Amino acid sequence: MALISSAATSNVNFAPPNIGHLSSQIVPVLKSHELIGFVDGSEPCPSKFIDDNPEDSSHSLNPDYILWNKKDQCVLSWINATLSDKVLASVYDITSARECMDNRVHHSL
Q: Where are the domains of the chain?
């Protein structure tokens, strides 16, 4: 719980010129909790479904996907908590941590 509150209560709001500050604050937190893979691509999203019986096309949700999605959404919320209102408005439709970071880096260049 302390991790969530420390990441979510940053007083720094990141507009595009401050992407380096975003990286310098969020990356160490992600690395320390082994979550950096959600923004650098080294922790790819597993398949959403498991083929239980390929003969009848039945599928079940993949437990690995469920866990991955929970972690990714937590990382995304940490990133979003550090963004200014203006920047947050530009990423409102982004649904993954990696996509959000890629978007911020692209728009800061």
A: 13-43+67-109
